[in-house]
Amino acid sequence: MADLIYEGYFALFLIITLGIMLGGVKFRGFSLDLSAVVFVALVMGHYGIMVPEAFQTIGLMFFIFTVGIQAGPGFFDAFKKSGRQFLGVCMILVSIAALLSFTLSRLFGLDPHLGVGIFNGALTSTSGLAAAIDVSGSTLPSIGYGVVYPAGAIMAILIIHLLPVFLRINMKEQEKQYLDKIHEEHPEVLERNFVVENKNIDGKTIRELEVGTMTHAIISRIRHGDEIYTPGENTRLYLGDIVKFVGTEEALEKVELMIGPHSDKAVPRAAGYKVHWVLVTNKNVINKSLNALNLTAYYNSTITRIRRSGIDISPRGSTTLRFGDKVLLASDDENMQKVMKLLGNNEKRLSETNFLPISLGIIIGTLFGAIVFPVFGLFEFSLGITGGVLTAALVLSKIGKTGPIIWTMSGGANNLLRKLGLLMFLATVGTHAGAHIAEALMEYGWTLLYTGMVITTIPMVVTALIGYYGLKINFATLLGVIAGSMTSTPALAAADVKTESDAASVGYATVYPLALVLMIIFSQILSVI
Questions:
Q1: Which CATH architecture has domain 2-180+357-528?
Q2: Sheet arrangement for strand 218-224
Q3: What SS3 class is residue 321?
Q4: Can you tell me whether residue 310 is helix, strand or coil?
Q5: Where, residue-wise, is CATH 3.30.70.1450 in the chain?
Q6: Residue 382: enclosing H or E segment and its boundaries?
Q7: Longest CA span, the chain
């Protein structure tokens, strides 16, 4: 019975169980969360209890792939928007941290592999640690990470709390500015009725008028005398008709210029006319535009609103549907069920997990990671398992769909597989590092901790000053950007309590994908120079 603890499979689940229990313990709002597994594993490894390395590779692949799938759309979209400033802050922070890691490691005579572990521990980056271990084949990065991580997490939380105080930032004012900007970028989708008074459009069809193209608003329904109906492309507008439009304030202003003044007269639903929220789960309509589907012509139905990632979007003809979109569908009784079937509307399918895209994506990433690139003739560079799988996942998640394969996962499935992979990875690397951690502490002492605290503190403070005073980034958002650049969930939690808005979360989500990529790249570079 006593020998059972030394069996790899039993040791794995014992370490995971104890680690989760330890991670759930909070001290003044701070907890190690899943990272506690690595500390339990370090202790177990010190006493000779080991988890087979095969679990490390499998866990690494699951973890990195799910991170990439989740981060892909945000990673690419950030380059198209004002998020470029956020990404600049992220690059500065990680670059400063990498430079400090290289300099201090050489200054204190630390092994380079130990130094890259300190770098990842200071920035609480598990993905960077995975990359370092993958490239170096050494357990030293795990030791540096395990020793420095607690100090790095605590320092990140303290700095997030102290920055607004020292810089005398009014967080309520910053929150108000953020909400005002959000309203400008994502105008509220409104409903308004208009009376047709423009003689130039009398008797013309909606297709002839190109109402959607001209105004970017959607016609929901029309009242012609006592008759109320859902319009089609060949529906004609007549003087005195009351038309219900859905769109942004700007779009509705264009409608008023084109159609006539708004009206207080109601346009109730006609008998047999329904409005329902419908889930997009049919893989055959994913990545197709509303123009291509042409629901108005084929089904006399209209999508008046799209809810995606919590944001309501006013649909246009060029708008493409994504898996998991929730659309507001207006249709008559006869066609409602047909369109629902066309779009899917299957909540069970939304929560199901098809393992084929996961295994195929990991294969593609592994093959890509095996390609060796020469760098200016100085050294050879390959993405390895970590970088290859991450790159493949980022690209595939952006593509969304290839033939019958959907490169997306439900939030629940992604979260479960990511946590499983992370737990397997941490438990394995922790036990193998634990066998050598006592020697490292005896040799380097407190040097590791001091070095890690410097690498955590200086980049955060410098980028806060650059981001706020130089780039004029909203400070509530900037705190999230800094937390995301640190890949630090505890720091994000600290930033969230500073504002009731989602400013910090948005900043975190924007830069987190780039931070993961940069941590992997710099970890690989630091491991070979």
A1: Up-down Bundle (1.20)
A2: 190-195, 242-247, 218-224, 227-229
A3: coil
A4: coil
A5: 186-349
A6: strand 379-382
A7: 91
Task: State how far the alpha carbon of 32 is from the alpha carbons of 26, 29, 39, in Å.
Answer: 8, 10, 10
Per-residue tokens: 194? 């208009």
Predicted pLDDT at 490: 62
- Tell me the Ramachandran region of residue 167: left when phi exceeds 0, alpha when psi lies from -120 to 50, beta otherwise: alpha
Task: Say what the pLDDT of residue 297 is.
Answer: 67
Quick one: three-class SS letters along 150-196?
A: HHHHHHHHHHHHHHHHHCCCCHHHHHHHHHHHHHHHCCCCEEEEEEC
- CA atoms of 258 and 261, how far apart (whole Å): 9
186-349: CATH architecture: 2-Layer Sandwich (3.30)
The token duo for 297 is 């012509």
Q: What is the pLDDT of residues 495-527, one digit of tens each?
A: 766 777 767 767 776 777 778 778 878 877 777
First to last CA, the chain: 47
**Cα separation, 46 vs 58, whole angstroms:** 23
Domain with CATH 1.20.1530 in the chain: 2-180+357-528
Question: Quick one: tokens of 384?
Answer: 């390895």
Contacting residues for 347 by C-beta, under 8 A, at least 6 apart:
279, 281
- The label of the residue with tokens 């509530």 reads 476
CB 155 within 8 A of CB 124: no
Give the pTM: 0.62
Query: Which of the 8 DSSP states describes residue 500?
Result: S
